[in-house]
Amino acid sequence: MDGRGTGRDLARQGLTVVAAIAQVVAGPLGFFLGAEVGEISDQNRTLATPAGYAFAIWGPIFLLIGAYAVYQALPGQRENRLLRRIGWPIVGACLGNALWEIIFPQRLFVPAQLTIVAIFACLAVAFGGLAREARERSLTGAERWLVALPLGLLFGWLSAATLVGLGATLRAIGLLPGGASETFAAAALLLLCGGIATLVLLRWRAIPAAGLLAYVAAVVWALIAVVAQGGAASTPIAVVAVAMIAAVIVALLGALFGGGAARGGGGATVGGVAA
């Protein structure tokens, strides 16, 4: 390995740790500089906005990304091909989270929404890289639980948050209609959320079960919270959200047990499928 490769690897490892810490620190900083995220979110709530408890998922996400950051920083992982493949997009996603936590409390709604889209794009690149690596070789247990699992949970939540955020952004800038049109718009966002999640599961089914299960857990968690909030105010929203939950679960079962692409890694199994 030449010095340039080693230097890039060291930079990636160091910036991953910095980015993982930054997304935790940025939350209190954003509150200090502006307002509480929950307060602003409540002011721009739509029928597609999950109940407030759903955002507690950030606790496990931060912990798991922290575990990933420690794992990838180990000297023995410096030249890990998987981490080289997906490490930089994850750095981008974490730094994007930190940026969003600072600009959203400033009520910079459009830049905040564009940031969420950029985070989603980074995570999609990383998830695709993980799937390609899993098709090419058997992933280790550490890679399944300390890479695929955290990435799946974060990407799953952002798959929902990107669209939920779009609804809130449209409300904040006065472009979301009221009445029946609002119900239609919220239902369309939920359909899009379910469609994206289904496509992710079927397109990247080679990902270890730990990553797929974490992805689905985050998406379903968000949709259940939509049923609890928007669904309580609108029966059509409840029906659409429940239908999307069912569709995502069916897609998960198809990805896990439908055959086709090999899933990376041996060891622990879920119904005979390597986790």
Characteristic key phrases:
transmembrane helix, membrane, single chain, 2 strands, 275 residues, 9 helices, Tryptophan-rich sensory protein, transmembrane, two-stranded antiparallel ribbon, mainly alpha
What does this structure look like?
With 275 residues, this protein is an all-alpha fold. It has one domain (3-274). Helix content is 76%, strand content 1%. It contains nine helices and two strands, in the order αααααααααββ. Strands 1-2 form a two-stranded antiparallel sheet. A hairpin with a 2-residue loop joins β1 and β2. The longest helix is centred in the middle third of the chain and has 32 residues, at 141-172. This is Tryptophan-rich sensory protein.
Run of helices and strands: HHHHHHHHHEE
Q: Count the E strands.
A: 2
Approximate shape: globular
Rg from alpha-carbon coordinates = 19 Å
Mean pLDDT: 92
Main β-sheet: number of strands, strand sense, barrel status? 2 strands, antiparallel
If helices are DSSP runs of H or I spanning 4 or more residues, what is the number of helices?
A: 9
Which percent range fits the helix content? over 70%
Uncertain runs with pLDDT below 50, 5 residues or more? 266-272
Please indicate the count of domains.
Answer: 1
- Biggest sheet, strands in spatial order? 1-2
